[in-house]
Amino acid sequence: MVDHPTPDAPTTNPPDREVLTSTVAEVWNDSAVPAIEAHIAVPALSPAFAPGWAAAGHIDTVLVAASDWLESLGVPGLTVSRRDLPGRTPLLLVDVPATDGATNGGTVLAYGHLDKQPEMVGWDDDLGPWTPVRKGDRLYGRGGADDGYSVYALGTALVALDRAGGEHGRIVGVIECSEESGSPDLPAHLEALGDELSSPELVVCLDSGCGDYERLWVTTSLRGLVSVDLRVDALTEGVHSGAAGGIVPSSFRIARTLLDRIEAASDGRLLIDELFPEIPKARREQAAQSAGTLGRPPAFPWADDTHPATDDVADQLLARTWGPALEVIGADGLPQLADAGNVARPSTTLGLSIRIPPGVDPEAITARLTELLTNDPPAGATVTVSPGWGATGWDAPPTAPWLADALQRASTTWFGEESRWIGEGGTIPFMAMLGEQFPDAQFVVTGVLGPGSNAHGPNEFLDVAFAERLTGCVADVLHAHATRAGTAV
Questions:
Q1: Would you say 462 and 139 are in contact if contact means Cβ atoms under 8 Å apart?
Q2: Which residues, 6 or more positions from 101, have their beta carbon under 8 angstroms from its beta carbon?
Q3: Phi, psi of 309 (to 5 degrees)
Q4: 273-317: per-residue pLDDT in tens?
Q5: Among 264, 282, 319, 370, which residue's Cβ finds the most Cβ atoms within 10 Å?
């Protein structure tokens, strides 16, 4: 469902469809996919997980590889430059001038990232995070789907438009290397870029997800994030559990009690009213439409009879983007079972990650969490809350008629199915930054993170065939932007 159903008509002839299709297939499969395989093989961990990233050189490796590949394409006027700032991860800036036939040469900002999440345990025996393995249409390995493929999809789309006689406006690609750490380096890079970004009319982001692999899915909203470390100290050092048990309160029990202040243990509902904004009517309608299309709930690798709180698919889709969720993502002070003695441990630290809905202020939630967790601690224990990084969620602006039509036509052309709209539960900090900085811009946020793709977890995979069709959709949308009616260069 879109806000304006009447499209503007393109003012020039479309690209040669046969050439466009064959070029996307050729460049994607013969050049882009091998480059993505090479990308997977590099452990380019985001700086939050690799403090020594600069000395390790892995981020440099994937950045140089992406830059060299883009320059090898021969796209007219394409330039690639690396931007460095002291103490920060580098940024890759891609700049391509508008084609001569574009009736609208306005700027399109394309976004992607090259840094990766940690390895995670649980990979199948024949798979691994840094070993690209192809099984049918699935290319396994860390960072292929999230989000290394994006720069290669962009380059493939531009080559295809060039060969097929299509048009595009000015393309500015911002490829960062700190997204998985919350994009801490991106604001400084954006400030340093200044007017080089111009004022983008269209933002294309390929770092999101899809409801299935049968059509183009457009992301309507993204959650933000709040992270804190909760530490409880009951002793200054560990002591014999037999001597202390019954006298010394368990630091783990105290931490568990504190969590009850912010989350209902029975069903996981968060107990902070500010985490529940009003859900827009349009988003409810879109969730109902997408639920009808999918006909099934989002797929997860459930253990045995584990199940969600509700069977209603639309409610599940809304809960994962307009509802908050708490996860304990790590712990300190808990030894591995093989190393665990009968000891009353001195402290327990839990890493808490809370996904927050669009429109919720992460700083306000962090302050509220700190207040709730530290006020009047049980048994007089020492409770410390250390804020981590936070990010604001994002709700897409109303979709312009020309873009709604272009997305629909692209989906039916490349997939044979109508496009659908869906909210995602992940966080892309750059989208909120751009939405605030460029309120008049249109957004196409989409991606390949569909059922089973398992970004951030074991056995992450890229559906190669789906990504190829998605690349074709990007090419068509770029052409539609450059040729829409009523806009001069």
A1: yes
A2: 12, 167
A3: -70, -25
A4: 999 999 999 999 999 999 999 999 888 899 999 999 899 999 999
A5: 319
C-beta of residue 364 within 8 angstroms of C-beta of residue 338? no
Whole-number Å distance between alpha carbons of 256 and 197? 47
Q: What are phi and psi of 2, to 5 degrees?
A: -125, 170
Express each pLDDT in 405-414 by its tens digit: 999 999 999 9
Domains of the chain: residue spans and CATH? 17-222+394-483 (3.40.630.10), 224-272+324-387 (3.30.70.360)
478: helix, coil or strand? helix
Residue type, 135: K
Phi, psi of 37 (to 5 degrees): -60, -45
Backbone angles phi, psi at 144, to 5 degrees: -70, -50
Structure tokens at 450: 């569909």
Higher per-residue confidence, 398 vs 297? 398
Q: Residue 87 is inside which H or E element, if any?
A: none
Provide the CB-side half-sphere exposure for 408 (13 A, CA): 13
- Compute the chain's Rg from CA coordinates: 24
Q: Encode 326-353: b = buried (16+ Cβ within 10 Å), e = exposed.
A: beeeeeebeeeeeeeeeebbbbbbbbbb
> Which residue bears the tokens 């243990």?
265
At 9 the three-state DSSP class reads coil
Give me the residue label for tokens 């001597």: 243
**How far apart, in Å, are the Cα atoms of 129 and each of 63, 358, 394?**
19, 31, 30
Question: How do 107-113 and 202-205 pair as beta strands?
Answer: parallel
pLDDT tens by residue, 418-444: 999 999 999 999 899 889 989 999 999
